[in-house]
Amino acid sequence: MSNRLVLLKWTVIWIGFGAVTNLFPGPLTLANLEYSNPSLKNLRSEIKENLRISKSGTKKEILIPLKYYEYKVQKEDNFFKIMARTGMDLETLSSVNELSSPHDLSQGMILEIPNMRGTFHPEETDGSDKTKSILAEKYQIDANKLQYDSERGKWFLPGISMGKSEKSFFYGFGFQFPLTAAIISSNFGKRLDPFTKKETFHGGLDMAAKQGSDVFSSMDGEVSFVGAQGGYGNLIIIKHILGYETRYGHLLNFAVKHGQRVKKGEKIGEVGQTGRATGPHLHFEIRRNSKRERPIFRSH
């Protein structure tokens, strides 16, 4: 493969006090991770320079504009090798590529590696100066150093690191089983619907347990919904880091309120059989960016 940089598109970002068309090429090809690769040398050099500028505390110096290098994951690669070779850090590589674990990499995957360290503000927003000022104040960053990615609809926050909970999650200490004891009565995936007797997709786990059993938050987060919702019956939704949310359905009652911050293992309600249920159980879901995922419990 050639080490030649390939122009794929133009990128529009926000710098200073308004929108400008950025005159550097869009995603650039990073053919390999050999230290002799000119593309890799350039990437590492820009990361180092942007890191120096972001830590300088001066408003006179402007960051080298945000751009990405695309790298195709090889069989012998792993997350930490790529991180070390490119000069990246955990926060940047995982945030930009929406990775929730070092094990999310697979051969043939295309990674985007930016020329600066930092993370994305997790929510999509506009690229206005007003939004930039709000985020600059929230994260205590010089507003002129914030960079807007128009394709993602998100602001890139140079120099911002993960908190302890995010790192803990990334390294594998993630979702906790939400009950003390239960029997999995219905798995994630296709199943015979107990009401219609037809094969349907089941987007969570049903955990049969004694009525009134305590239900615990599977991870730290913020309660975004408490109330009745269709077939879920009494439902609690908790928003977590990295675009995740968990859902707890068919509850007997609630022990939390909307907007409340909760810790992993904190009681949030009790097992019931409200809504579309054939007996007392907890319907548990994990979603990431609204897409249902098979629940995997990394710690108990």
From TrEMBL:
<feature type="domain" description="LysM">
    <location>
        <begin position="69"/>
        <end position="113"/>
    </location>
</feature>
<dbReference type="InterPro" id="IPR036779">
    <property type="entry name" value="LysM_dom_sf"/>
</dbReference>
<dbReference type="InterPro" id="IPR016047">
    <property type="entry name" value="M23ase_b-sheet_dom"/>
</dbReference>
<dbReference type="Pfam" id="PF01551">
    <property type="entry name" value="Peptidase_M23"/>
</dbReference>
<dbReference type="InterPro" id="IPR018392">
    <property type="entry name" value="LysM"/>
</dbReference>
<dbReference type="InterPro" id="IPR011055">
    <property type="entry name" value="Dup_hybrid_motif"/>
</dbReference>
<dbReference type="Pfam" id="PF01476">
    <property type="entry name" value="LysM"/>
</dbReference>
<dbReference type="GO" id="GO:0004222">
    <property type="term" value="F:metalloendopeptidase activity"/>
</dbReference>
<protein>
    <submittedName>
        <fullName>Metalloendopeptidase</fullName>
    </submittedName>
</protein>
<dbReference type="InterPro" id="IPR050570">
    <property type="entry name" value="Cell_wall_metabolism_enzyme"/>
</dbReference>
